[in-house]
Amino acid sequence: MVLSLPLPPEELTKSEQRILEYINTNTEAFLFQSIGQLAERLDISEATVSRFARHAGFRDFKALKSDVLKQASGPAAKMAGTFHRDEDLSVGAWFHKQMNYLQTTAEHIDEAEFDRAVESVCSARRVFVYGKNASSSLAQMLFFRLRRIGIDARLLPSSTSEMLEELNQATADDVVAFFAFSKLSSEGSILLEHSAHAGYKTISFVSRTFIPPEERADIVLYACRGEEREYHPMSAPVALIDALTVSATQKLGTRSAEALSSLYSLKKRFYGAK
User: Domain range spanning residue 159?
Assistant: First the structure.
């Protein structure tokens, strides 16, 4: 990245220019360094770093780092944003933060929409599930949970070409569920666009409270994952998947009971499961 400063670089001293060059070429490392670590890395004093921050138009080093965070992108920047925002990173504080995310999810979830999702996955001939990158683990979990309770779930490949091979089988009797938390991916756009042709119903898992009409699935389920520029935990999405699974199991009744019983018998037969 190239840090945008409120003054021309030529007005900086040689030491300050070194600091700026380091930030521009080692942004991710800078985001994880204290003022002392940066000074040691560049073999300068902490006072020089502080002067640079003020000369560049910031109150102090922390304000400088905050501005760099706003201009940076990528997973390292998100993780650094969490460190920058939260002074207490103890396990207890982290769990408390997840409780807040769960509470926010509970306050924003549309229960009628959730019930529609349960009805849809239970009545569908097949449920195709798609997720990429960090969401692929959630897609795997949803696929595993639904299949376990007797729903014919299919996991769509993350590769676009292979995904289309599988998606070509989807019909109006099916449901396609996918994850589009912060934005709709190109694959998500394909899933939505093809639904108009194939007739299947769509369910999207999002972390946005506003969804443009052109990005809106038939059913939208919200899960809070925190601020945009910080590490995004999966506690609320996992809880939402579990809630969907439990509600679907209850609705399916004996169908789920038979599927779970059959699986148990099979495991007991070959592995001696108890």
Answer: 93-271
